[in-house]
Every structure is written in C-alpha cells, then in structure tokens.
Amino acid sequence: MRSFYILNRRASTPSSPESKGASPLKSVRRERIRYRDMIWAFHSESQDLLLNTSTAACNGRLGWSDARALGVPIWLNSVETLKTQLEVIARNEYMAGDNRDPTACSLYYFALGKVKLVHGLWRQAAWHQEQAVMLKFLANDFSDARWRTAALKNAFALLSKRRFEYAAAFFLLGNSLKDAVNVCIKQLDDFQLAVALARVVEQSNEGPVLLDILSNTVLPIAFKNGNRWLGSWAFWLLHRRDLAVRILLTPLRDIATFLNIQVADIGEPHYDDPSLALLFSQLRSKTLQAAKGTSEISGRTTSPERSLTGVTKIKEEGEEERLQNEGDFFARKVGIGNLMKSAKQDVKVPEFDMNSFF
C-alpha cells in the first residue's frame, strides 16, 4: 500500500526543469491498487495489520479517496471496524478544507446515524450561505414520516442541481438507502461507496441492498472487464462459494450465460494470471461448497445452481473428502497448465506485489 502512494508521487513529480511541469511517468499513475491485491487482503487473517498499514500509507489522514484507492470497503471484513473507519473518514473529510464544510462529511455521518453531530457542525459554519436553512431543517425529528419525506424531496432537488453526493446524504436522512446507493452507482460511478454505505447502514454483510449491489452491479462490472478477482469476491459474499472458485478458472462466458448475467460484451484478460491458480488452491478447501465448485470445474458433478443465493448441501458420505481430493489434482493440473500456456505464448504476466501492503 505504501508503494502505491510512492509510485503515484513519483509519477506526479516532473523529472527535470526541461519537462515544464509535465511528468513522463504520468501514464504510470494509478487510481487504485489492483483488485487482485484487494481480494488477497479480503481473505487475509491479518486485517488489523493491513488496516494500520493503510492508515500509515496516507499519513494517518484516511479520506474517502484513499479508502477507495486501497479498496478498504472491499477487503475489510468486519462491519464494526468499517463503521469506525467511516467515522474517521468523515472527520478527515470535514477537516480537509480550510472552511470546515459540513456538506463534505454529511454523507458519512448520516450513514452512521449521527444527525445531531452534523447539526452541531453547522452551528460552526457561520460563513456558509446554507447555515440558517440547515440548522432549522436538521433540528427536526427524522423518525417522523413527515420529515423523512421532506428529506427525500430535498434529495431529488439536489439531484437536479447535480449535487450528487449531498443528494445521497439526504436520501439516507430520508431512510432511503436504496436511492442513496443508486446515486453512488449511477451518478458518482462509485460502487465501493455504495458497498460501504450498504454494509454500514444495514449493519451486515448479508443485507438485501448489499446483495442487490453485488448481483446487479459488481458482477456485471467484473464480467464486462474480465476481472475474475472482483467476480470471485462478489460470489463469495453472495454465499456462492462454489462459483467464487469456479470463476477463477472457468471461461467467463459459460458462467455468465448459465446465470443469465446481462452483459453485452464479456472481457477476457490478454494473459493467464498464474496467481489465479494460487488463489484457487487457497480457497478450494475453505468450505464444503467451495470444494463442490472445484469438483464442478473438473466436470464430475452436475452444473451449479442458477440462483445466486442459498448454500448447496451435499449429503453423501465421504463426498467432502472426494471433492477435496479432486480439487488437489485439478488445482495442480490447472496451475501448471496455465503457467505452461503463458510460457509458450511468451506472455508478460504481472507479478503479485507483496509490497503493496507493506
């Protein structure tokens, strides 16, 4: 993670006076770490260490742009820890500007249910032209349907003014999480923000809004971009551990067609990433359902269920051991096969960078 900031800093620094401010490394600058690194972090058992490293990498001032770039809403498993970090983000967003603008942090504080805190911040914003209006409005009781409706009306008015983030905040104030995440996805083009809000507001990794985001937004993005890592993460949270394993090695077109995932064009990476086989070998034995997915890849069991919900039950005695044995054989076969294929085609394969997290 530290290397992500170091490389971006170098990419933004002119190499010589003759460059006149232009950076020859501009094309190297990245908006985020790779999804591959995020998914390894998601399955890591050292998340406290990763979180501390993330905070240190941005000099202890974790803002939303940093959290998104490092994939914190994706790989951080604990909802309670995510809530704590969202409060840190809210405070840092508020403190970032010289004017201390309450609108910069309202979305995060409303997600945490801290309306009174935002009301207090508006008391200190004497310079803001909306202070009087907001002080009066936030003094109301938003457990009352009347004021929730008023908040929703304000949200739609803000949408028409293209103040999208603030509109999402008012949707949360009006108790409409679904509308708030839709703004994040459609207007802000930020599915990570939608995921973070859904997990915090629903206080769960299994809430209906979050599952809808995974099924109808994240999976189509993963298939469109040919990103097996992101797809595996979405299937894992959807409790389709069999598909989380299968997507690492199975042709994406086959899975998308079978599950009826609506994507016009399915992207396929121009290289075979050997680390996919490594993740496959790590995940195949984590759960019985993942072991079943391993067996399905080898073609020795029936096709996977079409539904993205529910857990497959295997009742035959000795089935788990048989599936894991098949997984051992197939993981070796696929891993070696992909490596040999890459070698024959002389394809450049990016290495997994452990320094991304240390």
What is the helix/strand order? HHHHHHHHHHHHHHHHHHHH
The SS-based structural class is mainly alpha
- How far is the N terminus from the C terminus? 6 Å
Mean pLDDT score: 82
Helix proportion? 55-70%
> How many domains comprise the coordinates?
3
Low-confidence segments, given as residue ranges, are 310-320, 326-352
Q: Please count the beta strands (DSSP E, at least 2 residues each).
A: 0
- State the helix count: 20
Shape: globular
**Major sheet size, sense and barrel closure:** none
Give structural attributes.
Rav1p_C, mainly alpha, RAVE complex protein Rav1 C-terminal domain-containing protein, DmX-like/RAVE_component, 358 residues, globular
Structural write-up:
The protein has 358 residues and is mainly α. It folds into 3 domains: 1-77, no CATH class; 102-205, no CATH class; 226-358, no CATH class. Helices cover 61% and strands 0% of the residues. Helix 8 (115-123) packs antiparallel against helix 9 (131-138) and helix 19 packs across helix 20. The chain starts with a helix and ends in a 13-residue tail after the last helix. Residues 29-299 form the RAVE complex protein Rav1 C-terminal domain.
